[in-house]
Amino acid sequence: MVNANCQHLLPEEMLFRTANNGDEPGSRRKIGRSLNSDQGSERKLRDRLMETERMALALEVSTKCGLETSGVFAAWGLALLRAGDWSSAREKFSHCLQKLKDSGNSSAESPLLKEIIENLEKSRYPGISKAAAVFCAIGSLKSIKDPSFEVKVPINELKGVVYSECKHYLELYGSHRSMLAFLYRHGRTTQALEYYLSKGCEVELFIEELLQPSLKQGTLDALLSSLRQMDTSLNRWWPTLLAICRSLQKRGRMHTLYAVQLFMEDYLRAAVTSIQFFERPPASGYSELHQRLAHLADARKHLETFLSKYTTWDGHRAKSTGTQVLAMSPKEVNRNVSMVNMQIDITRFLNARETEQEKLLLPRQKDSADGVAPTLFGDMAMKRDLACLVLVNGRNVEEGFGLAFRIIQENHLDGAVVFERAAQTLVSAGAVSQVERLVRCIQSCGYPDRYDTDAVVLAALQELVRSQDDKKDLDLLVKCLKKDVNKVEAYMLAGRLKTAYLLAVRQNRIDHVKRIMALAEAAGQESVRAICAKRLQGAGTPPQ
């Protein structure tokens, strides 16, 4: 250390030990043993030597004192790198960097590699051997300030040299992630894609190192174009593209997902995404949905494009070798086209009624979520609510019946449930006369035996009894009943027990007379109870 004129760098404790040893024979050996017994001061010495960029001495101290040498080689390599002696830097880094056993494991990559790449990318001149001579001659790279040491080269040539040097380190010591990020960062998109395929990289690397940067930079179209240039059929890219779609959907990047689906010519999935644009966020009214009808038009176009493009079938899958586009039979696709067209008609109809009425009449006992306008793309409960909504919001029942009946038929809904709920809704809104019109519509729908109109009327009667006891409205509903026994039931339900008794006697319905007597007794209608008891005695049936 003295011969190297570095005694001023020695920590005080080392100077003290050296002074005590004096010129005794074997003093050098004694110092070595002392160093090995307590390495704190030796580390300080090594670090000071590294700070002043006396790397050879720092390495010698580390070697003789049993200290780790990788840190010295790393610092030495970085110093040479900054000075421009890239060739010597390579040699130094070879002592402290190791090739990854698994290039797919980026967590095992040395942080030093990132620092090397960053330094190279900031370089203003290419690596030269002259810098090494300067480094050795003056002993400190901090003294290199003379611009004459820089070698001026054209910027494009410099970029090429830097690119090659960075690639050398990444190929030797880097992970797939670092290589992909580097290639894409430097505009080598095609090389990045070729590397991704040739190395069999994980799809997540494509998403994180290629897709996400392209989204931030607004260059997704260019990235997708590069995929097609490499493989016009996209067969090699399908697993990656499908994974990209799943990732985008998970992250809620629906517009980007839509663009990728169209790029893939995956028209059915693009149609589904268009429908999601129509439905989300959930709308509270049909004026809002009416403003989104363009998305349904897009969905219809994609469905029709699919039909025209994929005309050869094998079961339910389109014969398109290598691709995994979502496929359906023509019958299924046509059914979906019909559903989209129907939803367009429904939205226009309800938007017009909402605009005219300011507020739609909502079905009683609504099954679907409150505050959300039901559509055909929901579950069965939502579809039932929608059919009922259409049915009760026309200027009259006839106006909405045709569209509501289409909803019932094409979605295989239980029409009886829809009609009964609609009847109750009309009664609760004070439109009892519309129930009669509803019954006529059901009877003339072409399926007269499919639906029990008496059940619809009785449901309306139950609602009428809950809300009021208007004799005129009650009689109007009773007239809609076809079966006499149901008329008896209707008057019993309404508490019109005397009228019910007279009808029951006329029809010779002893069981109903018994029930009427029980109701009269419970209601305190003694006169009705008495005539029922008399009738039962006359019929030879004792009252119970």
UniProtKB/TrEMBL annotation:
ZFYVE26-like TPR repeats domain: which residues? 417-537
Pfam families noted in UniProt: TPR_ZFYVE26 (PF25569)
One record GO biological process: double-strand break repair via homologous recombination
Source domain of life is Eukaryota
Give the start-end ranges of region Disordered. Answer: 18-43
For this record, an example GO cellular component is:
centrosome
A GO term, aspect molecular function: phosphatidylinositol-3-phosphate binding
Could you tell me which InterPro entries the record lists for this protein? TPR_ZFYVE26, ZFYVE26
Kindly provide the name given to this protein in its UniProt entry: Zinc finger FYVE domain-containing protein 26
